[in-house]
Every structure is written in structure tokens, then in C-alpha cells.
Amino acid sequence: MLTKQEIIDSLRGGLIVSAQAYPGEPMRDPRTMAQVAASAVRGGAAAVRIQGISDIQATRSAVETPIIGLWKDGSSGVVITPTFQHAHAVASAGAHVVALDGTRRPRPDGLSLAQTVARLHEETNALVMADCGNLEDARSAAAAGADFIGTTLAGYSGERLPTTGPDLELVREIREAALGPMLVAEGRIHSPADAAATMAAGAEAVVVGTAITHPSTITSWFVDACQPD
Hints:
This protein has one domain (4-226): TIM Barrel, CATH 3.20.20.70. It has 10 helices and 8 strands. The protein has helices at 4-11, 30-42, 53-60, 84-92, 113-123, 135-144, 168-177, 192-201, 210-213, 215-226, and strands at 15-19, 47-51, 67-70, 97-101, 127-131, 148-150, 182-186, 205-208. Strands 1-2-3-4-5-6-7-8 form an 8-stranded parallel β-barrel, surrounded by 8 helices. The termini are far apart. 45% of the residues are buried. The mean pLDDT is 97.
């Protein structure tokens, strides 16, 4: 079993691949997601990011690399692992790291982020990744005890405009703030050049999802490119 420090060390400088499919899509199946995750690991992914209890369980049997797990529930506001019960279930399903909404918005169960993180650390062996939307979120998440700070919600939580590609400015701001937790860049990283740019901006690891594991979106990019001007 990997120790917490070994998990952190294994992610530093690495690529994390997010393997998720949306409800109603042909790939929306735990076995399929586990196979996609295993393929990413075969290509060199340091870890995988997986949504949903069944998908986490299936992937835990398919890969030996760390799993960053989450549970999306709801359609607006705090959706990513919104309550402690969601977070505990993600850890119990086999996730080495629980990813949750790390913004300063009220959580549905009334617990603060700090209370949620503390209980997870006390009651499970999981590390915690806080998905943040801006620098103040990152400061708050670091103070709450999160082990990883992600830029996942930059442009989605209502406090920063979405950027065309990765939010490099936010990566630089968080890096310069030297908050302590590992900085993980995520969101709109669509090419190897984007991934390299986020690392150059100060990220310690990079999450790529759509550009690697979402065939329908990738196909649409090529379809659009083939259309006459």
C-alpha cells in the first residue's frame, strides 16, 4: 500500500488523466472507464481522476497508480463531492485522493471545507484535493488542510471569466502565493503545448481529461476543422 507521502511524490511532475463520461453517453459504463484509465496508465499517466463510486471501484481493480476520486451530484452550485458523506463514500470506494469542491461557497450539508477535510483525514486514509476557482479559494483550501490545490473550477465558479485555454494567470498567482499544498493545474488543457505551459507557469502536476478520454468532443474538433471557411 502506498503511503500518503509516496502518493504525493508519485504525482509531482506527472500527468493525471481524467477518465469520465457523461450520463447518456455510450462510454458511460464503469468497466469502460476502468479500461480507459488503464490505457492512460499504460501510456505513462502518473494517476487517474475518476468520477462515480462504481467507476472508482472498477478502476481500483484495473490500475495500480493512485486514483483521484470524486462524486458529482447536482446541476448547479457545489456539485463536485458536495458533502462529507459523498467524500467518505469516495474514499471507501478506493480513491487514494478525494477531490471535492474547494470554493468558499456554502456546502449542502452545512459543514465548512475545513470541517470536511479534517473529518476525512481523521476517518479515512485518503488525501484531499480541493478544486478551486481563484486565488482566495486556494488560500482558504490550504488553510483548511487540503493536500492538493487544483485549478479545476477556474472560470466555472463565477468569480473568474473562463479562458480559452488553461488559466495560466491563476496558476502563476497560486504558485507565487506559496501556499504549501501541491498545485495541480486542471481545466481546458487541450494539447501537449498547453500542458507544458501550465508546468512552466508553476504547476506541479497537470490533469488532462477531454483531450485524451472524451472521443465525442475530440471528434467534434476535427469535424469543425474540416468545414470550409
